[in-house]
User: What shape does this take?
Amino acid sequence: MKTSVNYFFRSKPETIVILLVFPLFILIHSCRKDDPIIKPDATDVGAGSNETDSVRGFFLLNEGNMGSNKASLDYFDYETGVYYKNIYADRNPYVTHELGDVGNDIQIYGNKLYAVINCSNLIEVMDVNTAEHITSITVPNCRYIVFDKNYAYVSSYSGPVLIDPNARLGYVAKIDTATYEIIDTCNVGYQPEEMVIYNNKLYVANSGGYRVPDYDNTVSVIDLESFTETNKIIAGINLHRMEIDNYDNIYVSSRGDYYDTESKIYVIDPDKDRVSDVLNIPASDLALCGDSLYICSTEFNYDTGSTTVSYTLFNTGTQNVVSRSFIKDGTEDMIETPYGIAVNPETREFFVTDAGDYLTPGTVYCFDAEGNKKWEAVTGDIPAHIVFTRERLLGL
Assistant: This one.
């Protein structure tokens, strides 16, 4: 039987031994009286612009290596073209643990900024105008967050960070965004990941990553009125990313098993709750803008010891591959470990994050809509998740 270690965030195989030595169950808290506050670095990338009507900037959440308590928050300001690295510590000097251990997702809802901090078991809630701490919500082994009708829905592995063939089922927590209270939970599959909402139903990608090699292969369907799981759709193994297009198709990525079963994308018809198509396109991250689905992949194979990188552009209207490389100027040769992808909904410029060696600061690259590099900036460790904001950060 094949065995391997499948971490709940992407890691270079050669770093697995390093990661295993970190304590996985103890939250690491740094005390500010011992560690001075690091002022944010401000880098002028020469890209000040008034091109956007309402997108004023973006926040970038850096994961930080597991066990290092180094999740951090960066901000890019469109008006001045300045990239600010590590703003959270400066704006929250009294939060002793800073952001915590492994930043896994970041989203905006209303006037709040929500950061999902996986190994610290919390959702950090901030003011979107200032990035100042409002509260934190405890959710064990939390993964991703979506919103609907004044509620937040958070996927949770529920159990400890542990490769375990008997790992328990995960769940989705329902949170009132007015009170920040968890008002209900719903069990789903094993180690649930990203989610999308359609027609009052929540679709949840189940990975089963802790139960390697017996991965989960289902998408849970939750009725939001009763908040119960009503269906499971069989798809590929080790599911992760999800997007829903303008034609009501749900795209869910399968990471495969890193051996014989390759990564690909399953298309789900939510009106019939079944798989309608399979795209033989490897995917590590997805970003949708209009009819353009940007697919970034770093697919590792244990048998060959090699990683295959690809940047595919897929048209969701025609259901055709537009390009096998949406970076057009050769910059892909500079990117060591592509990790995240995001697209500005107004300008259609896109961003690719580079995790590098996973241990030192990474890089974010900005490209114009045609795929030519505009600028780059140094980020925190393992830059991963970007959310665009229509409110300019105050106090810059």
